[in-house]
Automatic annotation (TrEMBL):
<feature type="compositionally biased region" description="Pro residues">
    <location>
        <begin position="265"/>
        <end position="299"/>
    </location>
</feature>
<protein>
    <submittedName>
        <fullName>Uncharacterized protein</fullName>
    </submittedName>
</protein>
<feature type="region of interest" description="Disordered">
    <location>
        <begin position="117"/>
        <end position="304"/>
    </location>
</feature>
<feature type="compositionally biased region" description="Polar residues">
    <location>
        <begin position="228"/>
        <end position="240"/>
    </location>
</feature>
<feature type="compositionally biased region" description="Basic and acidic residues">
    <location>
        <begin position="118"/>
        <end position="189"/>
    </location>
</feature>
Amino acid sequence: MEKKSKMSGKKKLLVVGAALVVIGGGAGLVVHNQKVQAEKIELAEKKEKADYKKLSLQVDDSVKKAYDTRNAKDIEMAETIIKKLKEQDQKDPKAKMTKLHSFLDLIKKTDQLLATAEKSKKDSDIKAAQKSIDSEKDAYLAKDKKAQQTRLDKLKKSIEEQKKKEAENKKKAAEDKAKQEADLKREASTTDSKTAAVTPEKTNKEATNATPAAEAVNQEAGAESAQVPDSQPSPNNQAAGSVIPDYSNPNTGGGSTGGNTVQPTPSPTPTPTPNPTPTPNPTPTPTPTPDPEPTPDPVPSQKWIGWWNDGTQLHQTGGTYNTQAEALAAAEALYDANGMVGTYGASQL
């Protein structure tokens, strides 16, 4: 019985030893598993951090691209990627995108005000456009501000040139009108002078035609006076009715002393002179007709359009302009707004 008890004691020791071995091995296995799990968790955390950092960089790049291109698709892509960030990390990129939208809205507003000023040319619209340009103070808008200011300055210059041209045209029109009035007055004065020169001749003609009976009476009176003997003394101071003997005629005692018969010499019959002396009727000078007022030449069309050629297609600016400078300004604005690619110019309609 005692021997059996001793055997049992050895077995107990073996069992205890085996149990200790098993327990020790199990504890080591548990420790190993815990270490492996910890390493996996650590790797997962590192990967998650790396992925999030990559996402953050992607957000920064997308925001920068949206600022650079201002393209609607790029802006939408940046806003979509920002939403993948943790809520507390979305604040800064969202603020940047909001600011970008405000910049683009301001640029668009200024362009619209410029277009209105270019079309109306009103001083109030020009001042509104200038005020909007002055409000573009951020460095991001420096290039846009410069282009818009150049565009507005060209508009101001074109308006100034147009006003100057209109003043010159108005002055020239006034001078032409004054010259035309002076020419008309001079022509009227010349016509009056010619009419005054013709009127006396016509009066003389009427007076001559109105006195034929008087002339006939005067002619008859002259004829009767011619039949009366001339009572005026002869050149030899002889009395009327005295006879001058003809000594060459033997019958009158000329060359003979025996004849005493004397023949009287008749007095010559005077030629009647008409009174008054008739004059030929003058030919009246025709009254000159004044030249008709010249018809001014029609003013050619002064309408212009601006255009921009991107290399593949020709684009026209909206509406027409009164001067080439205005059309060029609008064309340049279209050219600048599309990246300054191709060529631009202005054409007269």
